[in-house]
Amino acid sequence: MTVVLGVDVGGSGMRVAWANGSARGATVLADGAHIGEGGIDVPALLPVLSSYAAQLTCPPDVVVWSMRGLTTLADPAEVLKHVASAVAARRVVVTSDAVASLVGALGEVRPGAVLAAGTGAVMLATDFDGVWHRGDGWGHVLGDRGSGAWIGLQGLRAALRHRDGLDDGSADLLETVSDLWGDPYTWPRAVMTGRSAPAELAALAPAVGALAPTDPAAAAICREAGHELARTLAAGAAAVRGATPCAVGGLLQLPAVRAAFDDAVGLLGLDLAPALGTALDGALALGRHVGEGRALAAHPPYLLLS
Q1: What is d(CA 120, CA 141) in angstroms, rounded to the nearest whole number?
Q2: Does 192 score more than 80 pLDDT?
Q3: What would the pLDDT profile of 37-76 be if each residue is shown by its tens digit?
Q4: Collapsing DSSP states into helix, strand and coil, what is residue 230?
Q5: C-beta atoms surrounding 178 within 10 Å
Q6: In the chain, where does DSSP find H-type helix?
Q7: Which residues contact 184 (CB under 8 A, 6 or more apart)?
Q8: Are 245 and 112 in contact (CB under 8 A)?
Q9: Greatest CA separation found in the chain?
Q10: Residues of the chain with pLDDT > 90: what percent?
Q11: Which region holds residue 242: left if phi is over 0, alpha if psi is between -120 and 50, else beta?
C-alpha cells in the first residue's frame, strides 16, 4: 500500500488529508494562501503540513502539494524545494490546483478539460503528454472571469454605480455590501491593497446570487458569470483531442450562476461529465498513481516531481 499525503491550497482555505489504499484520514482545514508583493507566502503554509505529517504513524510515501496560483504567483521549483524540506517522503509532487481538480473530477489520470470555479476561475485541458492548455487563472484584477471574486467585484461596481446616481446600478447591492463591508469609501483600499482581497470579494458572491431573483443588476452579473465560465471551458475542450469536459468548484452551487452556466454549456455543445471528486481527491489520486509506479511525466510549471 502507498501512503499518500495530499494538500490542496486554495484562496479561501487549505485542506490536508492522507490516504492508504481505500482508507482515508479526516481532512484538516486551515487558512488559505496569502498573497503579498512576492506572491504566495508558501513558507507560512508549511507548518500545517509538517504538523499533520508528524501525526502519521509512518512517513508518507508520496506528498502531493496542489496550489492555486502556482503558475502565476509562485516559483514552482521553489515550492517543490519548500515542500520537500518540510516532509520526509520518497516522492514529492507539486501541481497546480487545476491539474488536481482535473484528476479529482475524472477520478484518474486521463485526457480531459476541467473548469475550476471558486474564488478564482481557471481551466486546464491536457492529455498528460504533449498538450497542456491553460485558460484564465489571471487573478481577480486581470481575469478570473466569472469567478467568485469576479462576481464580488462586479457587485461592488453595481453598488457604486447606484451610489453615483447611475440608472444601471443597484440599490439592493449597495445596501447589502455596505452592511458587510461598511462605508463605500473604504472599499477601494480593501480591493486594491488587501492581502485577502480575492477571498473577501468571493465571499460577496453568495449575496449577489441571493439577490439575483429580484435584482436586475445581480441577475445580469450571475448570468454573465455563467456564460464566461462556459466559454472558458469550451475553449479548453477544443484544444485536446478526446478531452472529457467537466467543471468543479463551490461557485457552481449558486443557483443563478449554475443555471446560466448549464444554458451556455448546452448552447456551446459540450457534453459535460459529472465531477467525481475535488482537487484534494485529485491530489490523493495523483499520489497513488505515482506511488504505484505508473507513468507520469513532469511538465513545469503545471506539474513537478522529485
Answers
A1: 11
A2: yes
A3: 788 999 999 999 999 999 998 899 999 999 988 988 899 9
A4: helix
A5: 14
A6: 46-54, 76-86, 97-106, 139-142, 148-163, 171-181, 187-193, 197-202, 205-211, 216-237, 255-267, 279-291
A7: 159, 160, 163, 174, 177, 178
A8: yes
A9: 65
A10: 78
A11: left
- Which helix (DSSP H) or strand (DSSP E) does residue 132 occupy? strand 132-136
| pTM metric for this prediction | 0.82
Amino acid identity, position 10: G
Rg from Cα positions in the chain: 20
Do the Cβ atoms of 94 and 77 come closer than 8 Å?
no
Q: Which residues of 213-248 are buried (b: 16+ CB within 10 A; e: fewer)?
A: eebebbbbbbbbbbbbbbbbbbbbbebbeebbbbbb
Q: What domains can you pick out in the chain, each with its CATH number?
A: 3-107+276-305 (3.30.420.40), 139-267 (3.30.420.40)
pLDDT number for residue 29:
93
Q: Cell numbers at residue 32, please?
A: 488559505
Short-list 55, 49, 60, CA closest to 15: 49
Average pLDDT over residues 166-177: 96
Give long-range contacts, CB 8 A cutoff, 24+ apart: 209-213: 209/151, 209/254, 209/255, 209/256, 209/257, 211/170, 211/172, 211/173, 211/176, 212/255, 212/256, 213/256
